[in-house]
Write a structure and sequence with these properties.
It is a single chain. The chain has helices spanning 31-41, 52-68, 97-101, 105-112, 114-124, 151-154, 188-192, 216-223, and strands at 5-6, 9-10, 18-20, 43-46, 128-130, 135-139, 162-167, 178-181, 227-229, 237-241, 246-248, 259-268. The chain is α+β, with helices and mostly antiparallel strands. The protein has a single domain, classed as q2cbj1_9rhob like domain (Jelly Rolls, Sandwich), CATH 2.60.120. The mean pLDDT is 94.
Length: 294
């Protein structure tokens, strides 16, 4: 049996603890059915919903930008996104150089126009407002995202805010695909504690600083659930609620490929919105975003 890990911690891959995400393409045209399944599962996996050509155009844009700072190995085709081992650049956060990547024309076309917005109109049954900030992930071999709820980072607006996780190219499990903890959107105890903090509010974040745990088995043992993932293809889309626990598998690419993906958020246009992530220059988690007891 294949062994998978996140942040260096191995998953329990027994059939009752680890499995495959299920596709919701069977109800793709039915907004009410999509909303019901989201309420039931906490996520929707949609196969080949996005225009593959636009996804590949966005990939070209990202790798060209990464190549401009020396992160791409020149001995391989640019589109393969093979890390240059001689690069002195550190792994980037979404608010570093990746902030520039998220402003790219092709990326914006993919996530703020076309099929993505068309889907969310159907899903919400009304007008859609995306958060303006685009989180670009350039995940190197040996890296992964720890277990967390998105609410703790962007919970000042609509309770109907949802995350889209979009692979920019094929992302098989071995290269760090995303994993969802089934049923975690109904872990009331966890949602009322860790899941209610604001990372920029010192009144609520004393115990937690964003992630819940680096160990995917720890949260599973305490609250239950089954970790679900899959091999993603360019054009696939995974969306989930602000209180769906997720992490990513460790990127173990045998070719040293950088995993490219973007996280974007969407809500009904008539709902309150988190001020940290909107506008031409979103303030994000900077000093302006902080709240304190004073």
């Amino acid at each position: 049996m294949e062994k998978w890990s996140s942040c260096g911690f191995e998953f329990d891959t027994s059939p009752e603890r680890f499995g495959e995400l299920r596709s919701s393409n069977d109800i793709l045209e039915d907004g009410q059915a999509l909303r019901h399944r989201m309420k039931q599962d906490g996520y929707l996996l949609l196969r080949q919903i996005l225009d593959r050509d636009i996804v590949i155009e966005a990939r070209h844009e990202l790798v060209e930008q990464l190549d401009s700072i020396g992160d791409i190995d020149p001995h391989y085709p640019l589109i393969d996104a093979i890390l240059n081992l001689e690069s002195s650049n550190k792994s980037m956060s979404a608010t570093g150089f990746a902030k520039k990547l998220g402003a790219g024309r092709a990326i914006r076309r993919l996530v703020h126009q076309g099929e993505m917005i068309k889907f969310y109109r159907r899903f919400f049954g009304r007008g859609v407002r995306p958060l303006d900030f685009v989180w670009v992930r350039t995940t190197r071999v040996g890296s992964s995202a720890a277990c967390h709820y998105d609410w703790v980072y962007m919970g000042r607006g609509s309770k109907l805010l949802h995350t889209s996780w979009t692979p920019i190219g094929d992302v098989p499990k071995i290269e760090g695909s995303l994993a969802i903890l089934e049923g975690s959107h109904q872990f009331d105890e966890l949602i009322s504690t860790y899941g209610s903090i604001d990372v920029d509010d010192e009144r609520t974040n004393k115990e937690y600083k964003g992630q819940y745990t680096s160990n995917p088995v720890e949260v599973q043992k305490k609250f239950g659930g089954k970790w679900l993932t899959t091999d993603f293809k360019a054009g696939d889309l995974l969306l989930f609620t602000m209180h769906t626990m997720h992490c990513s598998l460790d990127n173990k690419s045998p070719n040293n490929r950088i995993r490219l993906s973007v996280d974007t958020r969407y809500q009904p246009a008539d709902e309150p919105i988190d001020e940290r992530w909107i506008g031409k220059h979103p303030i994000g988690h900077g000093e302006q975003a902080k709240r304190n007891s004073g």
